[in-house]
């Protein structure tokens, strides 16, 4: 039997489980053209936008290595109008998800209304409830009442058939997984959640120069890269368990190798988004990810993503754990 790497998000068929994470290589038309040309990226997510263009935070506002990144871009974006045009142009070749990150509930509602009134070129809206980088603005999804308030208002807008998902920040406490899911379960029209946004707010320093590597917000910013993967996987797994089946989970965080994609899907993700790795390697890094993932499936003799999605085993098959600190 042939290998089939296709998957579905919100009922939309994707020919590979790999898409970009919002914010990476998706701010300008030139960058988006490159995403469009990559046959292994199955969808485009646009830069989280506001109603009007923003310059964002002062530079340097991004620092990355092959395994790690910190950013405080401050929502530098070209405006909703610009990304609506992007959706019109690029949705002819692959699905385009519009990421919206209004600075207030009113702005989010106004943008969703704008999308609803547009000619429905976008394949879906990813409402970002988790930007960690706007000075003096908290991450909405850490305030469950504010999150419910925004979602009440957003889901009142008639988006027709256009699906809407949300991008969540990482949660770390089981109580918070439950509290967040309790809010999200109130919205039967919610079609996916993306777990996780970068881990805010970390500090990375250069001990040689004794400086922070980015400068806005006293050097604090959102962390990405390999070490966020365990947090991302915990969020994917918990939301897969806590949300109804019709809400897909998009895994995001620590996808640097094909095996990372496999792990996200094993925890229940329908597809994955790639941030730090894409930023550091550019679009040319995507075929390697795809082929590594395909090789994992061949090695494990899986034919489709459904063969292993969400099938993580949680009772150990190895009883004698030599790494147990108490044994
Ligand atoms: C920015 C960062 C984020 O993690 C996000 O979700 C939205 C915007 C930014 O700094 O531009």
Keywords:
327 residues, 8-stranded parallel beta sheet, alpha/beta, 4-stranded antiparallel beta sheet, single chain, binds 3,4-dihydroxybenzoic acid
What does this protein structure show overall?
The protein is α/β, with parallel strands linked by helices and 327 residues long. The protein has nine helices and 16 strands. Strands 3-16-15-10-9-8-7-4 form an eight-stranded parallel beta sheet. The chain is globular, with a radius of gyration of 19 Å. The model has no long low-confidence stretch (mean pLDDT 96). The chain binds 3,4-dihydroxybenzoic acid. The site of 3,4-dihydroxybenzoic acid has 18 residues, from loops.
Q: What fraction of the residues are assigned to beta strands by DSSP?
A: 15-25%
Please list the strands of the largest sheet in the order they lie side by side. 3-16-15-10-9-8-7-4
The helix-strand sequence is EEEHEEEHEHEHEHEEEEEHEHEHH
By DSSP, the count of extended strands is 16
List the SSEs and their pairings.
Layout: E1 7-9, E2 12-14, E3 18-20, H1 29-37, E4 44-45, E5 62-64, E6 68-71, H2 80-90, E7 96-100, H3 105-117, E8 124-128, H4 144-154, E9 164-168, H5 174-184, E10 190-195, E11 199-203, E12 205-206, E13 211-212, E14 220-225, H6 229-242, E15 248-252, H7 258-266, E16 271-274, H8 276-281, H9 286-299
Parallel strand pairs: 3-16, 4-7, 7-8, 8-9, 9-10, 10-15, 15-16
Antiparallel strand pairs: 1-2, 5-6, 6-14, 11-14, 12-13
Helix pairs in contact: 3-4, 4-5, 5-6, 7-9
The protein binds 3,4-dihydroxybenzoic acid.
């Amino acid at each position: 039997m042939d290998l089939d790497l296709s998957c579905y998000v919100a009922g939309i068929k994707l020919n590979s489980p790999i898409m970009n994470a919002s914010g990476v290589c998706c701010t300008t038309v030139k960058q988006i053209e490159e995403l469009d040309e990559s046959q292994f990226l199955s969808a485009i997510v646009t830069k989280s936008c506001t109603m009007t263009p923003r310059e964002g935070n002062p530079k340097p506002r991004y620092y990355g290595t092959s395994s790690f990144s910190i950013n405080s871009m401050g929502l530098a974006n070209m405006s909703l109008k610009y990304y609506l045009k992007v959706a019109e142009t690029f949705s002819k070749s692959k699905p385009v998800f519009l990421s919206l990150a209004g600075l207030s509930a009113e702005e989010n509602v106004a943008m969703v209304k704008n999308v609803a009134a547009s000619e429905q070129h976008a394949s879906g809206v990813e409402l970002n409830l988790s930007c960690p980088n706007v000075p003096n603005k908290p991450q909405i999804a850490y305030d469950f009442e504010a999150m419910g308030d925004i979602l009440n208002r957003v889901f009142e807008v008639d988006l027709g058939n256009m699906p809407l998902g949300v991008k969540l920040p990482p949660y770390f406490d089981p109580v918070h997984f439950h509290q967040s899911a309790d809010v999200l379960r109130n919205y039967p029209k919610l079609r996916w959640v993306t777990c996780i946004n970068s881990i805010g707010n970390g500090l990375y320093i250069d001990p040689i120069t004794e400086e922070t590597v980015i400068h806005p917000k006293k050097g604090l910013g959102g962390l990405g890269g390999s070490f966020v993967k365990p947090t991302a996987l915990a969020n994917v797994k918990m939301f897969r368990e806590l949300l109804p089946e019709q809400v897909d989970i998009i895994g995001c965080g620590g996808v640097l190798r094909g095996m990372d994609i496999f792990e996200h899907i094993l925890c229940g993700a329908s597809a994955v988004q790639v941030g730090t790795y894409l930023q550091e390697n550019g679009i040319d890094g995507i075929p390697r990810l795809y082929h590594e993932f395909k090789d994992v499936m061949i090695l494990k003799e899986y034919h489709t993503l459904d063969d292993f999605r969400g099938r993580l085993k949680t009772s150990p098959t190895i009883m004698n754990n030599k790494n147990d600190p108490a044994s």
